[in-house]
Amino acid sequence: MSDNADVVRRYLRVFETQDMEALKPLVAEDVRIHGAGMSVRGRRFVEGAIRTPGLSHCRLRVDDLFAAGDRVVTAFTLTYRHDLSGRDIGMTGVKSYRLKDGVIVEFWGETDLYTLLRQAALLPVRIPSFADERVGLKAELPDWVDAHSALYQLGRVLGIFPLDGKFMDVQYMFWDDHPLGNALRATLLGLVDAGVLETRGGGQEFRWALPHGAGPAPAVKTGDGAVTEAVTGIEPA
C-alpha cells in the first residue's frame, strides 16, 4: 500500500516538474481514464492534462491520501499561473487510482473545472439568452457535425470563443485532456441528456434535436437553467 501511495505521489509531482520521461514508468501507456463525462484510454491524455496550454507554474498540494489494496484515493488542490492575465488561479479535485505492479493502470475522478474557468474569465458571469443573437446552436447545428465542431459552436454560443474567431486558433483544446475542452464536452453531453441535442456514433456527431419553433426545452440541471436558455433561447420552466 505504501509503495502504491508513493507511486501516486511521484505521479502528481510530474504536474509540477513537467518531466514526461518520469511519467512513463508511473502510468501505463494504455491507462484507462474516467471522468468529465467521458471514458478514454491512453497516456497521451494524461500528458495533455499535464502540459495544459495557457496555464503554467503548476503547484499541486495533496490535501488527503488513502491507500488500500490496489487503490489510492487523493484529494488535491491545483494552482496555476494564468499566462494571459498573470494571475494565480486554482481548482480542487478528487481522484481514485488503480495500480498493478506499481503502475497506474486506471483512474476515476472529477475536478472543479467550472471554478478554474471562471477565474480565468473563460466563462461569463451571466449567460444571456441567445434567442436574438447572431449565433445559436439551433442555427449552427441544423444537421450532423463532428464532435469538435459541436464543441466549438457551443463555446461561441456561451461567449467563450469570439464570434469572429477561427476554429484553428482553439482546436488544440479538443485534442487532449484540456480543462476547457473537458468542461465544454461535459456541457455538450448534458444538453444531449436534456433532449436539446442528439448524438450518434458513440458521441462522434451531434445535431440540434428540437424542431424549430418547438415548445419549451427540458431544463438542463445547472441550478438556474442559464445554459438551457443560452443555447435554446427558451427559459426553462
Would you give an account of this structure?
By secondary structure, the chain is of the alpha+beta class. The protein folds into two domains: 2-112, Nuclear Transport Factor 2, Chain: A, CATH 3.10.450.50; 137-232, no CATH class. The protein has eight helices and nine strands. It has helices at residues 2-17, 20-23, 43-51, 113-119, 137-140, 147-157, 179-193, 226-232, and strands at 27-35, 38-41, 55-68, 71-82, 88-100, 103-111, 145-146, 197-200, 205-208. The protein has a six-stranded mixed sheet with strand order 2-1-6-5-4-3. It has a three-stranded antiparallel sheet with strand order 7-9-8. Helix 4 (113-119) crosses helix 7 (179-193). The longest helix is centred in the N-terminal third of the chain and has 16 residues, at 2-17. It starts with a helix and ends in a 5-residue tail after the last helix.
Q: How do the helices and strands line up, and which of them pair or pack?
A:
Layout: H1 2-17, H2 20-23, E1 27-35, E2 38-41, H3 43-51, E3 55-68, E4 71-82, E5 88-100, E6 103-111, H4 113-119, H5 137-140, E7 145-146, H6 147-157, H7 179-193, E8 197-200, E9 205-208, H8 226-232
Parallel strand pairs: 1-6
Antiparallel strand pairs: 1-2, 3-4, 4-5, 5-6, 7-9, 8-9
